[in-house]
Fold this sequence. Notes:
single chain; mainly beta
Amino acid sequence: MLALMASAGGAEAQAASSEDVHALEILSRMSNGQSVYYDGANIIGDLNLSALPGSRAKSSLQLVNCTVQQATFSGLVMDSDLVLWGTSFGNASFDKASFLGIADLANASFQQASFPGASFSGPVIFDGARFLGSVSFADAEFHQDASFNDVLFAGVADFNYSRFDSYTYFMGAQFFGDALFSDVDFSEAADFSLASFEAAANFFQSRFNTVVFS
């Protein structure tokens, strides 16, 4: 599977582990076009990237194994890569955000998260992520490979009306709440092998090319 190694160089802002970093510092650096990288940091305050000029991020953001209580990406256009690998979120909203590069959210955890209407132009990786409340990907668009292997969905997982243009992976995913996949387009192969559904699983009027559920 795809993996992104966080680089530390150039104009990137870096931090050692267990450092407190104010969200405004990150926003200030990204407003100036700097790529931002932190590993193991505690992000203080509302990381509201929607407040960037024109609601556009022209540089990359890499938060690895960080803690973020509040993050807002709603309506954001992100030109470069987004890496949130292993980061723990309290509340995070990605409503109608557009990600033009790679989006790597593998092993991230979310108390509350929402992605309705989000658009992913590059590959997106959620492998090993944990959604501890209900989450919505309704009307989301995935233009390249989308990987949700071994993801835990503790509440309702709403993918209604979403679109997957390339290969889709939910291998080993655990759905403890309702799994809603009504009226979804899967243009390429979709792999739900070893996925478990503990509540209702609704694929009403969804369109598949090839699908595996065994």
